[in-house]
UniProtKB/TrEMBL annotation, chains A, B:
Pfam family, one: Ribonucleas_3_3
Gene: rnc
Entry-linked PANTHER family: RIBONUCLEASE 3, RIBONUCLEASE III
Family per record: Belongs to the ribonuclease III family.
GO MF annotation terms: ribonuclease III activity
Protein role: Digests double-stranded RNA. Involved in the processing of primary rRNA transcript to yield the immediate precursors to the large and small rRNAs (23S and 16S). Processes some mRNAs, and tRNAs when they are encoded in the rRNA operon. Processes pre-crRNA and tracrRNA of type II CRISPR loci if present in the organism.
Enzyme Commission identifier(s): 3.1.26.3
Location of this chain's protein in the cell: Cytoplasm
Native source species: Echinicola arenosa
Protein name: Ribonuclease 3
Catalytic activity as recorded in UniProt: Endonucleolytic cleavage to 5'-phosphomonoester
The organism's taxonomic lineage, starting at the top: Bacteria, Pseudomonadati, Bacteroidota, Cytophagia, Cytophagales
Start and end residues of each DRBM domain: 177-245
InterPro entries cross-referenced by the UniProt entry: dsRBD_dom, RNase_III, RNase_III_dom, RNase_III_sf
Active site: D68, E138
Length: 247, 247
């Protein structure tokens, strides 16, 4: 079987659809599949899965479970090495900002999973399946892991998912609680700091809040955002920068 | 450095304490450490850690974060392969019953981590550190991963932690919700089923509840446990067996 795979003889058995999937996987993963059936399963959403035994569907959900775990381990090591002086609370928080439904879904769409996912969402609201590409991305990680082993999969996750699609520095800067940094500073320096709402603009659905940060009753910085909290963070971040506070 | 390690020249630099730790790790992990400093860090509880920079302590908490992730991936794959026909809900639930503070803490104690953990719990209640061995076990997994790579670490986790210390069949049987099985059966068969508390014995801290399961007002089975819920499960499990209900 191994020599069969090595000589790529299995590719002779591919039908047209298989060839298309194998080509897409090659682009996404960086290497041709050894065991294509894993990738077929990874791209099969439960809505398109047939029952193989009473009550058991061959969908990508089991691979998603596996891929989620492998992705978690790869990202954990990446952050562990990248931030040797940050504590486990920071590492946990930063990882959860990378590995979450929303961001994985976006990456899944960006790398083109919508072209290869098999699903049958007819009659179902889009929103009941809005994480379909994120789920499929996790399943793909599970398939790559089983197909090529941990080290290959780690390289795939880092070079094709994490590094090109996540700006970790930016993620961190939004993780840092700037507001509490500023309050800490004000207490140490014995200064009066105040956050006040300057304006709310935009429509009912897309509001923009503007917050002024005052130090000793004088406007020092301003911040804008879709929520009051985010605008406060932004104002506080600007103040931290202006005050040269280490982050 | 590699050849230095290969010839085990680094062991010449071990002091007495290092030698003792290396010997303990060899027994636990199945192989001598290559980079002992990883294991020194893994066995350093935060209560015994010195500050290396302002606010930064060199304790095992970062390795615990990494080890938790690697352990999660290894157990995920193990269950994925062991149960090819079970869905991801079952896999997730079963994994969380294996990888949890309580069970890891017990295993940590069993493999002898209490002999090598460095901690300073003086003046602190035992209960504030009751997961110390489970946390250290996770940190040890993180250290083995960094020291020897994923495949070695996976073998370590499976052969030294999971297979000898977890009875997965038993874990699954307690995962099954026997009470709902019985209630389902009673509705189908149109029988009256009742759970009633027969007695509570034991001290304030260690109670034992006894629950009777009655079918058509007659005692059919009994169950005991440290909580009412567990005693009910036990009584229901016994009834499922007596009724030959498929689980």
């Amino acid at each position: 079987m191994k020599i069969f795979r090595k000589l790529r003889l299995h590719e002779l058995l591919y039908n047209k659809k298989d060839k298309r999937l194998a080509a897409a996987i090659k682009i996404m993963v960086g290497s041709k599949p050894l065991n294509l059936s894993l990738y077929k399963l990874a791209t099969k959403h439960s809505s398109a899965a047939e029952e193989i035994k009473h009550g058991i569907k061959a969908s990508n959900e089991r691979l998603e479970f596996l891929g989620d775990a492998v992705l978690g381990a790869v990202v954990a090591e990446h952050l562990f090495i990248k931030f040797p002086y940050r504590d486990e609370g920071f590492l946990t928080e930063t990882r959860s900002r990378i590995v979450n439904r929303e961001s994985l879904n976006q990456v899944g769409q960006k790398i083109g999973l919508s072209n290869i996912v098999e699903s049958d969402l007819s009659g179902k609201g889009f929103y009941s399946h809005k994480s379909i590409y994120g789920d499929t991305l996790e399943a793909l990680v599970g398939a790559v892991y089983l197909d090529r082993g941990y080290d290959f999969c780690k390289k795939f996750v880092l070079t094709k998912i994490i590094i090109p699609h996540f700006d970790i520095e930016n993620i961190i800067s939004t993780t840092t609680n700037f507001k509490s940094k500023i309050i800490e500073w004000s207490q140490k320096e014995n200064k009066e700091v105040e956050f006040s709402l300057k304006s709310v603009t935009g429509s009912q659905r897309f509001k923009e809040f503007t917050i002024e940060l005052k130090i000793e009753q004088e406007v020092y910085t301003e911040g804008k955002g879709p929520t009051k909290k985010k605008a406060e963070q932004e104002a506080a971040k600007n103040a931290c920068e202006k005050l040269n506070l280490a982050l």
